[in-house]
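worker-3 :: picked Copper-containing nitrite reductase
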Amino acid sequence: MAEIFYLTKYLILQSFGIFIAIIFCAILLFGILYKWHSKKTATILFLIFFGVLLFLFAPKVLPGRFEYPFALKTYGPADSPAIPFKNILAFFKNLNRIEKVADIARDPNDIPPPITRAQSEKIKINITSKEVISEMAPGVVMPYWTFDGKVPGPFLRVREGVKNFVVQSAQPGTLYLSLRPP
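worker-3 :: tokens ->
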């Protein structure tokens, strides 16, 4: 729920800022135009004002492409790492299907016991990759791709020379990068 609040808060603040700037500029322009009664002068001033408004404010407030996060910029030849906005909307639409985890950090003491067997046998280890949402810092909620709901992946203890099979399966994604229809 906090994710929707932060996105909505950002969009409302941006829209409110644009609205206030346009109202202030319109009042200023009206005052100038009221002082001069010439329609020709009023039209020229309005076009100049509108052009300056578009030239100065639009690139700063409106994103180049409709992506999220809006303020994310890339300095260099690479494309922006921003996520297309339609995928963000799909993410929020399917937010209730994503598992929420209080703490994604794996306990560093969570290690398997030492190997005591002397004979060689096949070892099969199952790891499930799944997407979860967790709070990274107070008020900052992030989606994570985890191994069995924890990061980093599990500690695997095997004997050298033994055939080991690691079966990695992925839960059907519900995140904005890998949405599947319900």
